[in-house]
Design brief:
single chain; 282 residues; mainly alpha; 0% strand
């Protein structure tokens, strides 16, 4: 992306920016609320598995641990969440199931909502059966009958899973719909963010809005990249160029990272403030 910035510096300098303050404020509020909704999704999964942390504490654990995803390796956010959850008496089997379900459902829902961006993007080499195959694989990975096979893991791990409450198919569908709605709202927020910099025609809202979900999906599947940095932006760029000039696509792909990280920071500060306030009132 830095190379694109260098190559397109003249085109970027010639861009006619129209910074919209109302769109900027709406976009910041929206992405802040979306991070809270994302964290609440994990709380809902825990409750389906019979774990009952307080809503605020569960959201706080998710947000604090999510910072660790910017550390190379892809596992540190899970490890930090496991350590924080341990203090809330969430057993290892329940936590492991919740992390597995969250990862698979978030990935599959982002792929589903991001699919229009792939359909609208010309020149990309993919076949419908590629997407269908991914959906089937993910669906199998979160099906209750497949999850129940963890009970047969040898030793104490299998025993822990045999004592854990397993989700029903209905509950998994509920969580899946929740995250699909989450990605739809994220797409709408990204359209608002785009209009903050460049007016966007209504007919481009669907492909542009859905591109943010596909960008996150690309970041999910390449775990070794901390926070999906570079991967998400590159994916966004290639999905946006059929609909926007290359210089605009470059600016949106790069500045979206700043927008998203700002929402992440604001949501964490808000939740931490509410948590400390609730502790003082006890």
């Amino acid at each position: 992306m830095l190379n694109l910035l260098y190559e397109q510096n003249k085109q970027i300098a010639d861009l006619d920016f129209h910074l919209s303050i109302p769109f900027m404020l709406i976009g910041l509020v929206a992405v802040t609320v979306l991070f809270i909704l994302d964290a609440y999704g994990w709380v809902l999964i825990l409750r389906l598995l019979a774990a009952r942390p307080s809503t605020l504490q569960g959201i706080r654990i998710w947000m604090i641990s999510s910072i660790a995803r910017y550390i190379p390796g892809g596992v540190w956010s899970y490890m930090s969440r496991a350590e924080l959850a341990r203090h809330e008496n969430i057993n290892l089997a329940t936590l492991s199931l919740s992390l597995w379900l969250e990862t698979m459902i978030v990935a599959s829902s982002s792929l589903a909502v991001g699919l229009p961006s792939l359909i609208y993007a010309g020149g990309l080499q993919f076949k419908p059966w590629h997407i269908l195959g991914i959906f089937l694989l993910i669906s199998l990975s979160i099906h209750p009958k497949v999850i129940s096979l963890l009970r047969f893991t040898p030793g104490s791990i299998g025993l822990a899973f045999s004592n854990a409450k397993l989700p029903t198919a209905t509950s998994i569908i509920f969580i899946y719909c929740y995250y699909c709605l989450f990605w739809l709202l994220f797409g709408l927020a990204f359209v608002v963010f785009t209009n903050m910099l460049f007016p966007l025609e209504y007919q481009k809202w669907l492909p542009v809005g859905s591109s943010i979900a596909m960008g996150f999906f690309a970041g999910f599947i390449i775990l070794i990249v901390p926070g999906g940095i570079g991967v998400r932006e590159a994916t966004l760029y290639f999905l946006l160029i059929p609909h926007l000039p290359e210089a605009q696509a470059t600016i949106l792909a790069i500045t979206s990272r700043v927008w998203i990280m700002s929402g992440e920071a604001l949501s964490l500060l808000l939740v931490e403030f509410l948590f400390r306030k609730s502790v003082r009132n006890i």
